Amino acid sequence: MKRFYKTVTVCPAEGGFQCKLDDRDVKTPMGKLLVLPTQPLAEKIAAEWDAQVDVVKPQAMHLTQIATTARDKIEGRRNAVEQGLLRFTNTDLIFYFAENEGLTAQIAQRQEAQWRPWISWMEEKIGAKLATTTALKVLEQDPAFHDFMKSYLSSLSDLELCVFQILTSESGSLVLSMGFMEGKLGPKHLLEISNTEDFFKNEIYNIDFYGQDPYQEKKWVATRQTYEACRICLDHAKP
Predict the structure, then answer these.
(1) Does residue 142 contact residue 130 with C-beta atoms inside 8 Å?
(2) How confident is the prediction for the chain on average, in pLDDT?
(3) Which of 106, 107, 109, 194 could be bridged to 98 by S-S, CB 3.0 to 4.6 A?
(4) Which residues span the domain enclosing 114?
């Protein structure tokens, strides 16, 4: 749609802060008032709207997308979202290794180096061992992991839960997503560690010389932008 407003401002709202386009409230796709928990986050979102020139491009406004998703898709249906995330307790990406022999041995070694520290980190948190495998079967983890994640998810705000859902959907890992939430992983590192096999193959195929697959490159750029927006949301999620 064409830009229809001249100014973007931030003002207090019940429960936080909101953005205004001239005298119009910014609302979600479902028509709800977009209320942000902190003024800095509201100002970041206002800057996204103000950066639109002739045409408003929602796909370029990552913070706005996350905030409106939290309002429309998380609020009022937290239980369903949390239950969906808890299904990852047995299918987390970093529990499933390549075979450490033959053609996949080097990939397995890279996974071991990058994933094992995070498995150990989570084991320390839950006080139990986590199972890993190279087989094509779904693991059944210690109930302590499920209980820990259930408690953790319930402690998050709607916005934080939305961010966590995005991170887990993109990375395939509850463990790595929690590492990101706690500031132990940045956008670049999360992208690399959740795509260990592909990054390893790119090294083998010397993409610096031959070039990266255009589709993969476009996807990774978009994913990293999403992770960067998630980081900004988390940094400004609490008053």
Answers:
(1) yes
(2) 95
(3) 107
(4) 78-235
